[in-house]
Each structure stands twice: as structure tokens, then as C-alpha cells.
Sequence to fold (609 residues):
Amino acid sequence: MEKDSIIEIKNLNKWYGDFHVLKDINLNVKRGEIIVVCGPSGSGKSTLIRCINRLEEFQEGNITVDGIELTHDVKKIKAIREEVAMVFQHFNLFPHLTILDNLTLAPMWVKSKPRKDAEETAMKYLKRVNIAEQANKYPNQLSGGQQQRVAIARGLCKNPKIMLFDEPTSALDPEMVSEVLDVMVELAKEGRTMVCVTHEMGFAKKVADRIIFMDAGQIVEENEPEKFFKNPESDRLRLFLEQILSH
Amino acid sequence: MAVYEQKPTKAAPSSSKGAIHWLRENLFSSPLNVALTLFGVWLLYLIIPPLVQWLYIDATFSGTTREDCAANNGACWVFVNAKMDMFMYGFYPVAERWRINLGLGLFVVFLIALRFILNNKIKFVLFNLYIATASILVIGGVFGLEFVPTEKWGGLMLSIVVAAAGIVLSFPIGIIVALGRQSELPIIRSICITYVEFIRGVPLITILFMSSIILPLFFPEGITFDKLLRALIGIVLFQAAYVAEVIRGGLQSIPKGQYEAADAVGLSYWQKMGLVILPQALKVAIPNLVGVFISLLQDTTLVLIIGLFDLLAMVRITAADSNWLGMETEGYVFVTFVFWFFCYIMSIYSDRLEKRFDTNLK
Fold:
């Protein structure tokens, strides 16, 4: 393992039945790096980041997260999930719990923190995403943008080394996208490792250290934002950029 | 191009509300609807007046013997009144009946206490404490309480004991079977599926016969197993399968994202199920669960065929008393009312639970 990489993916292959969704993926993410993964739908980008915290199993290859190699071993999976937080497209807040309880659930049950400490931490992160005043409401009483900010705060509560974002703004009404992106930009400045699957090219330009373009289950091109947008090397990326930036 | 002023909000037109509007919308909206309404009114006219006549107007309420009823054509409630103790306690020794009343009273105290206690752990402890106290009170044999064998239990008290034990025991078993049916381990899954499909393919009466007549054949000679206990085992195994299916329905309504989010925050399998999935699944399942429990309460009347004297059986026994021959009708009307009352209370309770757990408030 390279000294400063925190996620190391080697020769990763995954099939859904006979369908080859991930083809020979190799990717190293450095500590503190901000990676944006983009590509047409069905290209395997969500599947890729969901392999990192083992929401998806894979058949071939290795993934090493912060020195822990991902295997079937439940303890290792647990150890990795403690370091990795994930924000989902559909927020996936727990609708039967208040916002505050959503945030304190894992710290209290997984890390056995006393309620008071867990609530203090939760309030700190709720303030960070500008939503502290909603702490005692239920998720369904909040707008999509607010729910997604809560989801980000829930991820932050375990102070993870890595944040994974799986199309965090795709399910939002247009006017709510920016409040979520603003929070993500703030997070990016703090030096936490982030891997974001997103179509928000403005966000990619602003904060990404590296952008990865996937198509048909493989990485087609990776580059720093400047070159990625100005001088795409592959035809497929050029076509993709034309399609999403033309209007 | 144009710019528009903000428009004022107006009240809804008066023709869309009020009693006359409601009548027109709901009872007389079409020729078929008019016909149905008139037919319904006619049916009510046929049924209600004679019923009221028999139940109240011509009925006898006071007296002590059959002869007091002779003057009236209506119901003889004197019978129900005279046999009330039998209906309630069966053959439970008269001197010990206070124990059942106390057990019931403690239940009311327990319910009230639940409203003031917020901590779930204390609630759980209190619940178990109540079950233990009530069992000791009803069964006896310790703390100087006389032991009352289950052959003497009967009437409403027996129905409630069977229903309550059935609910309390089949619920956790049902949860475990429902989870087992979703398990990724093929052996556990097939055991649970076989169990559910087997039980659901057999009527409760058959299971009661099996547990009360066939089961003892497998025990060595001399070992007897309480009849009520055998019936209870049958009922619990039967109900657990239905509870499991209702809960499985609830589990299936939970989106995959909830499982993933619970995994992603690092919860273990049992934490995920206990803290995230089941609370939501059970909430969805409340109406159907209460439906299962209501039919369980009604099914307790089947224990009479294996020789236990529940409320319904007590009517048959008391109406066979030579002083009260032919009084079944009054007895069955009374039993109907008692069962309706308990089922209705369960329905109301289920409604209130649903509202209390509703977090989709706007």
C-alpha cells in the first residue's frame, strides 16, 4: 500500500448475475483528497463507491480502506464502516426517530457513548449544517434539502476519515441543491477525504482534486478538473461533457 | 410579457359544504344510490324496532328466579344476572375470586402507570412484573395463596387468560419467525417457511385436538401435562404463524435504503432490526396485528371442544340448569356483547397506537 493513500482499489471486478458491472477498476485515493466520480447512468459509479463500505459485495480484486483489507470478515467490515460515512441519494433518514435521535443512534449503540455526549456532538454538527433549530422534528417534516443536510450531519457524527456521497443532490428540488452543495464545499475545505458521485460539474470544478469519468463499468479517464473540462482526451468523455454542459 | 399581482385567497363556495350537500353527495348522488339508501332504511326499520322491543321494552331486568320473567315476552336478563359469577369466573373457588379481581385491578393500575413512565426499560420491567404477579395471583400455590388447578378456571376469566397468554407469547415468536423467513441462511429460512405454511394449512380446531389428544400419547405413562397448558401451546404456535406473516408484510414495506443506512452507520444485524427496521415495520403492521389478536380472542371459544369451560361454554352449562332451561338466547346475546366490547376496545387502542406512532405529521 502506498504510504499516503487511504483507499486502495485493485483490479476490482463485480458481476450482477452475468452482467459485468465493474470492470477491472484500479483507484487510489490519497488522504485528504476530494474525488468526484461522474459518468452516464448505469456506468457503475454508485456501485463502485458502495463497494467501499461493503453495501455491495464484489467477486474479484481487493479494496483496502485505511489499512484494513475488506473481506467477508464481519469485524473488518464493522471496522471499515466506523471510518467511512455515506450520504445517500434519497437521504435514508430514519423516519420514526427525531432528527436528534437519528444522529445519536449510532454513537450510542455502536460506540456506547452516553446520551449526553452523543447529543452534544449531534448538536455541534447540526449547527455546522445550519439546521440545529430542527433537532426535535421528524425527518418527514423537513424539506429535501434540510433532510440531506441532516444526513450529512449524521455521517459526520462518527468523525469519519472518509465521506462517501452517492448522488446527494439528484433527488432534490432544484432550489434546494445549492444549500446542500454549500455544506459539501465547506466540508471539502476541512481536509477530510471525500468521494462524491455527482453530476454537479460546478461543484467538481470548485473543489475536486481529481475527477473520474466512468462508462460501461470501467474508468475511462481521470484527470484534474482543469484538464478534465478543457482538454478531455477520450471521445466518450468529450461526448458526455457536451451532453451535460450544452444547455 | 406581463406581470401579475398576487391574488387573494377566497373561501370555498357554500354549495360544497353543509348537511344538505353531504346528503346529496353521499346518499342520493345517483338513482342506484337512492335505491340503496331506501333499501337500507327499510332494512333498519325491519330489524331495529323488534330488537329494541325484545332487548329493552319487553325485557325483565329485576328478580331472582325464572318466574319473575313469566309476565313479559322479552329477554329475561334475570338469568344473566343470576349466573353472572359463573360467566365471569367459572368454577373458580368463590373464596378465591378476589384474586382475579385484584389481578384485573392491577392491570388497570399498570395501564395508567404506562402513561406516566417514559423510560422503555422501566416499562419492560413493569410489564414482566405485572405478568409475574398476575400469574401468581391466578394460579396460586405460593405466598400462602391456595393453589387453584386449571380445571376450575372458567368463564370470561379463562377466555382472557388464554387470549392474553396467546398474544403475549405469540408476538415475540412471530417476530423471530418473520425475521427468520427473511434470513439469508437457507436452513433458517426454510424452517420458518415450513412452519408458517404448515400451520396456516391446518385449522385451529385440528391443532387444538392434536395438542390435547395426540401430544400426550408421546409422553411416558404417568406424566400428565396440564390440559390448559396443552391448549395454550397449540394456540400460541397457531397464532405465531399468523403474527409472523403480518409482521413480514410490515418488513417488506420498509425501503431498502433503511437497511443500507443502518448498515452504513455501523449498526449490527440485531441493532439494525431492533432499532431501525422493526419499529417501522411494526408500526405499519399495527392494524393487521390487532386484527390477528381480535380473531385470537374470538378463537379462544374453540377451547370448549377440548373440554375447557370458557365464557361460551359457561352459557351452555348454566342454560342446562333445570331452573333455567331454554335461556341460551339471553346468554348468547350477553356473550356477544362481551366479545364485541373487548374487540371494540382493542380496535380503539389500535387506532390510538397508530396515531401515537405517526411521524408523518405535517
